[in-house]
Amino acid sequence: MDTVFDATSERDRLARELLTRIADKWTLLVIEALEDGAPKRFTRLQEQVGEVSQKMLTKTLRQLERDGLVTRRVHPVVPPHVDYQLTPRGASLGEAACAIWNWVDEHAEAVAQARNATSDPRETAQDVDCD
């Protein structure tokens, strides 16, 4: 079987890093919160994403900015005002993520039913008599 990624290839290492970032707990939620194209302040993003700590949202936004997916704009006022907005590259990720959101929306109920129908493997393992 061919490998999907070549560990010696710089491009494949970057691809793996990007996939890991996109699949983390907060990235797609932040992308979705910014998807309407309007600049958003940090506190508004935190409200929209929900349950994300200030530290994790800051880290996620910095990584997205570093990758060119989000722009951070500082307004020269007192107190400082900062907002975030998707770049065209970030917006294209948002469009691609729509397929994932649609899949989740379509299959969430079936997944919940499957989880409820499946017994806990630890309970099953305790019931097995190996003698």
From TrEMBL:
Residues 9-112 form the HTH hxlR-type domain. GO terms for molecular function: DNA binding. One of its GO terms (biological process) is regulation of DNA-templated transcription. Keywords: DNA-binding, Transcription, Transcription regulation. InterPro entries: ArsR-like_HTH (IPR011991), HTH_HxlR (IPR002577), WH-like_DNA-bd_sf (IPR036388), WH_DNA-bd_sf (IPR036390). Pfam families: HxlR. The keyword DNA-binding applies. Coiled coil: none annotated. PANTHER family: TRANSCRIPTIONAL REGULATOR, MARR FAMILY, TRANSCRIPTIONAL REGULATORY PROTEIN. This is Transcriptional regulator. The lineage of its organism: Bacteria, Pseudomonadati, Gemmatimonadota, Gemmatimonadia, Gemmatimonadales.
